[in-house]
Design goal:
The protein is built from 8 helices and 14 strands. The protein has 353 residues and is an alpha+beta fold. The chain has a 3-stranded antiparallel beta sheet. Helix 4 crosses helix 5 (198-228) and helix 5 runs parallel beside helix 8 (314-323).
């Protein structure tokens, strides 16, 4: 079906297309490797069954969760907040002795400044997460691609996952589904695409459903092995430390999810989560770099055949929905002449209201 779109509508590959700037924070920890210690985070991160990584122009820059963490920056620019450059620095070094930037989430202080929306100035309550590419000094507006395309791309390039049912090859991900009562066995292969665009983000979702099903077979087999061995413990006791800093990296359905916490006197002194929405839906930052939604819809071709008076914006909505199926109902389009188009689209394709 996805290839049909390309064939039937030449040029449709440009809908929602942007530079390949993908972030994946990894998923499905291996209990044989993961101890959740920051000092070991690089190793247990690379042992995940979905490999973390940052991908720039098709190249995997890192799979190291420590690097991913330390190079996170929270920028303003077009947001309804004041900067925190004069506020307390909560964390100056990570547990490995690496310096931590003032604009890292560990040091963020949220200082809202409500104001009238101005598209030439400040126009969003979303801050602008960026990832600092140490090679160039650029603050990259990574996107999650809706989740699956980043997970598959990172896993494919890393070539680390091989659990029988799922295998990363360095250029693709092979998925093996065994025979069931109703279906024959099946082998699928997701291949790294030419583009990061609306159709490829949607295509990746379908493949990642199969990825999850295949991984579940492996996890169930491992679980049965644990039960047979009498290992039924499912959690570890812990005590809240007097002083600590911590972070957590995982994948939500729509993409990257990280948590950044500072503990003092056994209480939370500072805490900031970064789920997929701020990564995908952020506005222009202090360098004028647009966030992924804006970047993907700027100059995107319009294939809709409705005239100006009946314009629905389906191509714009399809581009945004490829990042996040929850967001089209929150997308309003200014079409000029003082007219704002507000359309609520059903999240269920083909189902009327």
């Amino acid at each position: 079906m996805f290839d049909f779109f390309y064939e039937a509508l030449p040029g449709y590959e440009e809908v929602g297309r942007r530079r390949v700037l993908l972030g994946c924070w990894g998923a499905y920890n291996d209990p044989n490797h993961c101890d959740y210690r920051y000092e070991h985070m690089q190793d247990w991160g690379r042992a995940m069954f979905v490999t973390p990584g940052v991908i720039v122009d098709g190249e995997q820059i890192t799979t190291n969760l420590v690097d991913i963490n330390l190079n996170m920056r929270i920028l303003l620019g077009s947001s309804f907040y004041d900067g925190w450059e004069n506020q307390e620095m909560f964390v100056r070094e990570d547990p490995l002795g690496n310096p931590v930037d003032r604009n890292h989430p560990w040091n963020q202080t949220t200082m809202p400044r409500p104001q009238k929306r101005d598209f030439t100035g400040n126009y969003s309550w979303v801050m602008s997460p960026r990832w600092l590419d140490q090679r160039s000094g650029s603050h990259l507006a990574l996107d999650t691609g809706g989740g699956p395309i980043a997970r598959l791309w990172s896993t494919a390039l890393a070539g680390l996952v091989d659990i029988g049912y799922v295998k990363s090859t360095g250029h693709s991900v092979k998925i093996y589904l065994p025979k069931t009562a109703l279906k024959p066995e099946m082998e699928l292969e997701w291949k790294i695409p030419k583009w990061s665009n609306a159709l490829e983000r949607d295509r990746a979702r379908t493949y990642f459903q199969a990825y999850c099903a295949a991984a579940a077979y492996y996890f169930i087999e491992r679980a049965f092995g644990e039960l047979a061995a009498g290992r039924t413990r499912t959690w570890t006791e812990f005590t809240v430390p007097d002083e600590a800093i911590g972070c957590g990296f995982h994948e939500a359905v729509r993409g990257v999810l990280s948590h950044h916490m500072v503990i003092r006197d056994k209480k939370i002194a500072n805490y900031h989560p970064y789920p997929p929405t701020p990564w995908n839906a952020n506005p222009r930052d202090i360098y004028g770099t647009p966030g992924p939604y804006e970047d993907a819809v700027q100059n995107t071709p319009i294939f809709e055949e409705n005239g100006p008076d009946n314009f629905k914006g389906i191509d714009i909505m399809r581009a945004v929905r490829s990042f996040d199926p929850c967001l089209p109902c929150g997308v309003h389009m200014y079409v000029g002449g003082g007219k704002t188009l507000k359309v609520v689209h059903s999240p269920m394709f083909g189902v009327g209201r």
